[in-house]
Structures are given as structure tokens and as C-alpha cells.
Specification:
The protein has helices at residues 13-26, 39-48, 66-77, 93-100, 108-124, 147-161, 166-176, 184-192, 217-233, 295-305, 320-329, 335-351; strands spanning 2-7, 32-35, 51-56, 82-85, 135-137, 143-145, 200-202, 205-207, 244-246, 254-264, 267-278, 291-294, 359-364, 367-371. The protein is α/β, with parallel strands linked by helices. It has 4 domains: 2-101, Resolvase, N-terminal catalytic domain (Rossmann fold); 122-233, Putative Large Serine Recombinase, Chain B, Domain 2 (Hect, E3 ligase catalytic domain fold); 235-311 and 356-373, no CATH class; 316-353.
């Protein structure tokens, strides 16, 4: 088995000496040196000459972009070729790559400085990102109680532990707190968040008693037990919810539940009704009617007319590759899992232009129209 060193210049004595010194430290030798070739030529040379190990002067010598660099390392790995960088601090190519290579044109140095700053704030329990409902930030950047909002958080836990359903709590809040927008999901998220018991969780940082709790642990645990029980009983999550938007104002459609009861032959009968609804609240335009479509009717129409294989189910952030490599470097995922996740990312990126991200729904004279941009 042979070793190939990929360098910037085979005539650069300083660079070659750096490679040789690293090899002596690691107790192996280089059989071939190559420079200024495209990756296909490198790859053909590797296969032809039975190369088992590739040594890089640094990550940039293979590629200047993190995503392209990752593709090349994976292709070498699949052919049983290991890769090292001539760096005593970061011989692992990925550990060096996330510190030196561009990510979608973004400076890795700046990203790492931001990451270090975030980790320092997290270690102190300071505010990062969105502040949980019920709290606010003080002048020092720490969490303190928002007196008005915290009353509503306490009310949510109190009602839920008195066996009010999440839907009933949402309606109660909507009727009494007209200046705020409430949804079942918002209420459920509050009930699930142990931040209200004084626990701070951010990235890998967990700090008990970080801030003043709004809810005591007994009330939180009682709500959690009830949530866990109700989640087991809940029906299968609706596939279409997150893709549906109003064709008039472009707001996301919400799902509402309505209960109706009546007396028939002296007996009380009850029935639940579900609807997709848009009240156009966030729109600058005025609409005379709320969009309201029966849940089962629209789902049936979607199943008949929309090919699920064309739905883009998962969107990836620009920083996804960086986060994925960070997980690999910190041994949070195995290399095979890393390859699978990266390939899913690449597949979604390539297909994105042909995939459906949103489905817009209109209803005119009781006729439903579906469209996607």
C-alpha cells in the first residue's frame, strides 16, 4: 500500500520539508507527490497506484469550499483511502477543514469566533436567541421574570393540571388576552419546557437553578406525565400541515377543532369538527371572508392531486454541513451516519429546484384550488 502527498508545489522545499517532518513524527513515508491537478486526476492516480493513504499539506490544497471538500473525502473513504493533514494540532482533515475552509462563501474564522462567544454566554446562562415566553432580559444579559407573561404561564400549568385540554386552554387565552396570538402548539411548547423550573439548556450546556423558576417541579412533572399519556393516545400527525398556505394572503394555514352537541331522542350527542383556517391576520390586504375548509375534505384532495415524492420534507440551513462536521469531530455521530446525513443533504440540495416547498390553497364558490410556486 502506498502513500500520496498532495501539495501546492513539489518544488517548494519548505512545504516538502513540512510533509517529511510530519511523516517522521507519524512514522510513515510518502511514495508520491502531486500538485496542481483537478480531483479527478488525483482520484485516477490513487486507484491506478494502489494508494491507501493521502496526506494533505492543509485542507485548502484539496478544496477551498467545505461542502466540496467533504464530498471528496467521502469518495476517498468509500475506496478505503484514509486522509490526514500535515498538522500536529489537527491531523483529522475535518477538524482542520471547519477551521479554515469557506462555507458557502462565509469566513470560517468569523464563524468560529461567533461560536466561541456563544459558548461563553451559554456557560454563564445568558440570553441567546429567542427568550422563552414568561421571561425578559436584564441589562446584564440574564433571564428575569416578565411579571405579566409569567402569570399566563402559571395559568396554563394550573388549568392543564386541572384536566383542561390544550385546546380549551388556547381558547381561554384567546378570549382573555386579545393582544396576544395563541395556538395549541404554543401552549404545548410551554408545558414541555423545563426552562420554567429554572433549568438552562443551550447546546451542550445544562445549568440547574440558573434563573428564578416560574413553575415548581411538582407541577411541571404532573403536567409532563399527563402530556406523555395524551401523546400516546394522539392520532398520527397530519402529513400536510406544515406545507399548507393561504392562496390569498400567503399565511400558513392553521387547524382548528370545534365541538358540537345536540339532543336526539332524549340523548345528548356530540361530534368534533376540524377545519383548515386562515383569518388573514398578518396580511396588509383586507379580505371579506375567513378561509375555512373541512379538514378531511382538503386532506383527501391533497392525497389525490399532490405527489408526496415531490414534497421537500426537510430544509437545510446554510450552516448544516458545518454542524454535521462538528458532530463528527466531537464523536457525537459515527462516520457512516455522517455520510448518510451528508448525502441526504446533497440530494435535497440538488432536488430543491424541482421540489414542492409550499402548497397554496384557495376556495372560491366552494371550489378548492391548489397551487405551488
Amino acid at each position: 500500500m502506498n502513500c500520496l502527498a498532495i501539495v501546492y508545489s513539489e518544488k517548494n522545499i519548505e512545504e516538502i520539508n513540512k510533509i517529511n517532518e510530519f511523516c517522521r513524527y507519524e512514522n510513515f513515508s510518502v511514495d508520491y507527490y502531486l500538485s496542481e491537478l483537478d480531483f479527478k486526476k488525483y482520484f485516477d492516480f490513487i486507484l491506478k497506484n494502489n494508494i491507501s493513504k493521502v496526506l494533505l499539506t492543509d485542507a485548502n490544497v484539496l478544496d477551498s469550499d467545505l461542502t466540496s471538500f467533504t464530498e471528496k473525502i467521502i469518495s476517498l473513504h468509500k475506496n478505503n483511502v484514509s486522509v490526514l493533514c500535515a498538522s500536529y494540532d489537527f491531523p483529522d482533515p475535518f477538524q482542520l477543514a471547519i477551521r479554515t475552509l469557506n462555507m458557502g462563501g462565509k469566513d470560517p474564522g468569523r464563524i468560529n469566533r461567533i461560536k466561541d462567544s456563544i459558548n461563553k454566554k451559554a456557560s454563564r446562562g445568558q440570553v441567546l436567541g429567542k427568550i422563552p415566553y414568561g421571561y425578559k432580559k436584564n441589562s446584564s444579559g440574564f433571564f428575569v421574570e416578565n411579571d405579566f407573561q409569567s402569570k399566563n404561564v402559571k395559568k396554563i400549568f394550573s388549568l392543564y393540571n386541572q384536566n383542561f385540554s390544550i385546546s380549551e386552554i388556547t381558547r381561554e387565552l384567546q378570549n382573555t388576552l386579545l393582544e396576544e396570538k395563541w395556538s395549541n402548539q404554543k401552549v404545548k411548547h410551554i408545558l414541555e419546557n423545563d426552562f420554567y423550573t429554572g433549568i438552562y439548556r443551550r447546546y451542550s450546556v445544562v445549568i440547574p437553578n440558573s434563573h428564578i423558576p416560574i413553575i415548581n417541579k411538582i407541577d411541571f412533572d404532573n403536567a409532563k406525565k399527563k402530556l406523555d399519556t395524551n401523546n400516546k393516545r394522539s392520532y398520527r400527525k397530519n402529513y400536510w400541515n406544515k406545507f399548507l398556505f393561504c392562496g390569498f394572503c400567503s399565511n400558513k394555514l392553521s387547524v382548528t377543532n370545534h365541538k358540537n352537541s345536540w339532543i336526539s331522542n332524549g340523548k345528548i350527542k356530540r361530534k368534533n369538527y376540524k377545519y383548515y383556517v386562515c383569518n388573514h391576520k398578518k396580511s396588509d390586504l383586507e379580505f371579506s371572508e375567513i378561509l375555512k375548509i373541512k379538514y378531511e375534505k382538503l386532506n383527501s384532495l391533497l392525497e389525490e392531486n399532490i405527489n408526496k415524492e415531490l414534497i421537500l420534507e426537510k430544509k437545510f440551513e446554510d450552516s448544516y454541513v458545518y454542524k454535521l462536521i462538528s458532530q463528527l469531530s466531537n464523536s457525537k455521530i459515527f462516520f457512516e451516519d455522517f455520510i448518510e446525513k451528508f448525502q441526504n443533504y446533497k440530494k435535497a440540495s440538488l432536488q430543491k429546484k424541482d421540489m414542492i416547498e409550499k402548497i397554496f390553497v384557495k376556495q372560491i364558490d366552494n371550489q378548492i384550488f391548489l397551487s405551488s410556486p
